[in-house]
Design brief:
minor pseudopilin epsh fold, four-stranded antiparallel beta sheet, 8 strands, 24% strand
Length: 189
């Protein structure tokens, strides 16, 4: 048998008035408006770190594939046609390919191992003179320029309004590593 629910002490439950609900909603909207810029900066900070990690991972992929295939593998700035760009920056995106003819430019018949899309618009990704367009790995896993000399350098990532920056540093044997840096120093973006 079902037992009836107990009656409330007050026959009328006052609840919230429409005015009280509107005041609470207005306060929540105000707080959300004040918090939005900090959420944007937080999102940009993590997008920048993610791009740095993805670039490092692409470099490690190129190096390991060069060793595995015993062929030259190159990572370069990409253009819209899935080829290496003659101008621009790493923020345009990049591609990793098997460089059969060892010229550090992707030909139509060379195998693409990875395509990376353009970085978010707020982000600047720029390499120094030795890695401003490409990083290429010989079958030994060492980074090499077109002439066969070792290739080392730094690719910097920074964003407008960001206090921190990231560097992907490629050492003399081609191993990439990440470094966090202050964006307000002259050596960063």
């Amino acid at each position: 048998m079902l037992t009836p629910l107990p009656r409330r002490a007050h026959p009328k439950d006052p609840g919230f008035s429409l005015l009280e609900v509107l005041v609470v909603l207005a306060l929540l909207a105000l707080l959300a408006t004040l918090a939005a810029p900090s959420f944007k900066a937080f999102r940009h900070k993590h997008q920048m770190q993610s791009q740095a990690e993805q670039l490092q991972a692409s470099l490690m992929l190129a190096r390991s594939e060069a060793l595995r295939r015993q062929q030259r593998v190159t990572l370069c700035i990409r253009d819209a046609k899935q080829a290496c760009a003659a101008a621009g920056s790493w923020a345009q995106g990049w591609l990793v390919f098997v460089d059969d003819n060892q010229n550090t430019w992707r030909e139509a018949d060379e195998t693409i191992l990875q395509l990376h899309a353009a970085a978010p618009g707020f982000l600047t990704i720029q390499g120094n003179a030795t890695v401003d367009r490409f990083v290429s790995y010989a079958p030994s896993g060492r980074s090499q320029s077109r002439s066969g000399a070792f290739q080392a350098g730094t690719i910097r990532l920074c964003g407008a309004g960001q206090a921190d920056a990231w560097r992907v540093v490629i050492n003399a044997v081609g191993k990439p590593r990440l470094e966090k840096a202050r964006a307000d120093t002259p050596t960063d973006c």
